[in-house]
Design brief:
Number of domains: 1
Radius of gyration: 15 Å
Strand order of the largest sheet: 4-10-11-12-13
Oligomer: single chain
Order of helices and strands: EEEEHHEEEEEEEEE
Largest sheet: 5 strands, antiparallel
Structural class: mainly beta
Distance between the termini: 34 Å
Helix content: 10-25%
Number of strands: 13
Amino acid sequence: MKPIIHTASSGLAAIIVLTGMVAAKPSTPEPCVQHSFPVLSTTDGAPVELTARPGSEADRLARQLMARELERARAHGEDPLVLVGMGRLNDADELLFVQLQSPGECGSAGCDSVSFRYTGDRWIRIMDTVGARFRIAASHHRGMPDLIVEERNRLVWDGTKYVG
């Protein structure tokens, strides 16, 4: 199903919200599940906002893709807060950013964050880093825009994943 584009303007910024249907394949073998969720389109330097969205399609998708990490945290008596954000890198590439916040997932440098890219018929894990603030840069490597993490760390696409 093709995404439907809605434009919303405010005094400071315009945000494009795309809604589409995608299939997700978690890291553990489970049947594919159809998902519909908002995708925030980012422009050069625009932030990707990580927020708690309990019950949303993005939250359900993040929980499915991060099932192992959530199970491990629960085994240690933790119930992590799940933060999600969506970004569109170009006409074809969507990213799901996920951060789990709990004592086991966060340290003195911050909390672990991961990103998944929708490719073909599934989500592929393409980034593991520490941080909560992401921007999509104008510069590109191997056809994908660079990601700026915490204003100081530039991650570049190596053809398979983002590396620092």
